[in-house]
Design brief:
mainly alpha, elongated, single chain
Length: 76
């Protein structure tokens, strides 16, 4: 079982009210690099959560990956 717990309250110094989850990339003011990085981090965290949910559910691919992982562990 994989458990990840990461919590971070990250904010741009210039735009402290910017929320990438609500506003998205279109609300970035003046091409702020910190806000763009916050958007990138938010998108990557969403991708990670979706991948974790996909492999956590009992679908055929998740079961296949578990079997492959067990085989690889036995070889080592």
């Amino acid at each position: 079982m994989l458990k990840l717990r990461i919590r971070a309250d990250l904010k741009c110094k210039k735009h402290p009210h910017f929320d990438p989850a609500k506003e998205g990339r279109g609300a970035i003011k003046g091409g702020c690099i910190a806000c763009e990085t916050l958007c990138d981090l938010h998108l990557q965290s969403e991708k990670l959560l979706l991948a974790a949910q996909y492999f956590q559910n009992d679908n055929p691919m998740a079961t296949a990956w578990r079997v492959i992982a067990r085989r690889e562990l036995k070889k080592a």
